[in-house]
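The authors assume throughout that readers already know how a fold can be written as discrete tokens. A single example would do more here than another paragraph of explanation. An entry of this sort, consisting of the sequence and the corresponding backbone structure tokens, reads as follows:
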Amino acid sequence: MILFKRKTAGEAIFDGLNGLVMLLVCFVTLYPIWYVLVHSFNNGTDAMQGGIYWWPRVPSLDNYRAVFENTGIMKAMGITVAKTVIGTAAHVFFTSMVAYAFSRRELVGRRAYMMLGTVTLFFSGGLIPTYLLIRDLGLLDSFWVYIVPALFNFFDLIIFLAFFREIPAGLEEAAKIDGAGDFTIFCRVVLPVSMPVVATIALFHGVYQWNDYFTGMIYINNSDLQPIQTFLYRVVAQSSSNQMLAAAPGGMAKNVTSQSIKLATMVVTTLPIVLAYPFLQKYFVKGFMIGSIKG
């Protein structure tokens, strides 16, 4: 019996090149993140001289002190946390409730609704009609602009629908025999047994809510209502970093620059979701697999 097959010279060279390419791809992907991190922990004035590639040359926390002493970023962080928590809970409940209705065969016009919903996956009204709608609803410069337009997503409905169709009909029939109505069955029977898909959609939408900067940029003029990602956009793309630099204490201002403050702000705003993603990745994969295998 042959336990091991000796590789040919060509196969060995191919495997070596394949590993080298993968290593190069990982380096190209991760080094920009490392570069930003290193410069954010370096003295800003010293970093202007260049030549920093792997480790901070003059380690300093002044960049982060300048960021956290700015009241604007703390308000923006609070708005982001609030809209992520409230928006995710509302989105999951509303979308799952609509998906449960779609899963009922007795729903009148279900095929037409599915067709209309499918069209929205490929076409939208555009930015200007959407802005006019948001304005007419009175959501401009309102916290609810983060919540109400994002209550429903048809793609998430499809994922919910695939899971709901696999729930044994006997569970709902038993609840109906006990006198439960549709809403009671949904809240007390369907949702408790649907925690895997609920967790998946919650992660999908939670990441979206955390990373969304566009909504705050288009529909919010009040700086007290801007989320952290919009704050980051304005720091990087506009002159907010210069304002933060001007507001820094005198002793600290000697060690920071507008560029170093930008880099520190980028780290602060992206670090929470970057740290959380490895632990949540399995739910993302599981969400895409829901309903794909029939046993």
Summary: The CA atoms of residues 38 and 54 lie 7 Å apart. Residues 71-103 form the longest helix (33 residues).
